Amino acid sequence: SDKTGTKNSVRRTLASGLQPEPDTDPSKTATDVPTIFVITPTYARHVQKAELTRMDIRTPRDDSIDSKTKTPLVTRFLKNCGVSYTHLNAPTPPDRRPEKYKSRHKVSRGVNQRNTGLRWLRQHANETKRGVVFFGDDDNTYDLQLFEEMRHTKTVSAWPVAFVGGVLVERPLLGEDGKVAKWSSVHKPERPYPMDMAAFAINLQLILDHPDAEFSYTVPPGYQESTILQKVQVPLHDLEIKADQGTKVLVWHTRSAPLELASEKKLKVHSNVNIEV
């Protein structure tokens, strides 16, 4: 269903990636510039368009939807962005839908949609193409500098994320050797990689070299990040730390607050008739 307020998880994958300002060096060509593939899960709800607009980073993208059909709202949004994209759709299994659980924290969301984006990349990405894969959710706010920081990721790069895990910021703590000694996180700190999904990017070649690097419904919530990072076999200690060695925040987890629509429910005719909100 595409009706407003339904819980169809629409997952989008920004696949043609962010492109930097034109390089003035005549010896460089477009193929020298790594492409950033941003896989973004999203689902139909009242604030969906607002969330997508806030995180619109003017990047070519490959969009993947958790729905039996592609939703018109997302299709129109992508067309209006003026960038190239691939719009995919992949429904969440009925027994894995969030409404089946009393808490949104008891089920992993976006698993099938992110995996659909990864499969698309493996089928269509040229192995000679330089690129980076980033899982950018639609309820985050991004500083454009983040994408320039991740563009030249050699294996797996990482950085701080604000307003996540019940704290102001989760971030890497570096040892005297400049490598990650620990990841500062209060939420399930025992995880192999106690990080948020927006805290890392993976070199495209690692995704292509490890076809089993996907997300899973069989791991507890909070372990999706560890699942895929373990599959690409880059230890926490060896992550490439960006954002001034992890001292700057360039991404914020800014999920919209629940809407108060008590008056809307009293209307005989809904206020959004013939207008997309």
UniProtKB/TrEMBL annotation:
- Keywords associated with the record: Glycoprotein, Golgi apparatus, Manganese, Membrane, Metal-binding, Signal-anchor, Transferase, Transmembrane, Transmembrane helix
In alphabetical order, the GO MF annotations are:
galactosylgalactosylxylosylprotein 3-beta-glucuronosyltransferase activity; metal ion binding
Q: Where is this site: Interaction with galactose moiety of substrate glycoprotein?
A: E170
Cell location: Golgi apparatus membrane
The cofactor required is: Mn(2+)
A Pfam match is Glyco_transf_43
Q: Name one GO biological process term.
A: carbohydrate metabolic process
Region annotation (Disordered) maps to: 1-33, 88-109
Q: Which residues bind UDP-alpha-D-glucuronate?
A: P41, T42, Y43, D66, R109, R114, D137, D138, D139, H253, T254, R255
Q: Where, if anywhere, are coiled coils annotated?
A: none
Q: List, alphabetically, the InterPro entries matched.
A: Glyco_trans_43 (IPR005027), Nucleotide-diphossugar_trans (IPR029044)
Copy the pathway line from the protein's UniProt record: Protein modification; protein glycosylation
Topology of the protein relative to the lipid bilayer: Single-pass type II membrane protein
Under catalytic activity, the entry for this protein gives: 3-O-(beta-D-galactosyl-(1->3)-beta-D-galactosyl-(1->4)-beta-D-xylosyl)-L-seryl-[protein] + UDP-alpha-D-glucuronate = 3-O-(beta-D-GlcA-(1->3)-beta-D-Gal-(1->3)-beta-D-Gal-(1->4)-beta-D-Xyl)-L-seryl-[protein] + UDP + H(+)
UniProt EC number: 2.4.1.135
Q: Which SUPFAM superfamilies match?
A: Nucleotide-diphospho-sugar transferases
| Record family assignment | Belongs to the glycosyltransferase 43 family.
Quote the protein name from its UniProt record. Answer: Galactosylgalactosylxylosylprotein 3-beta-glucuronosyltransferase
Source organism per UniProt: Notodromas monacha
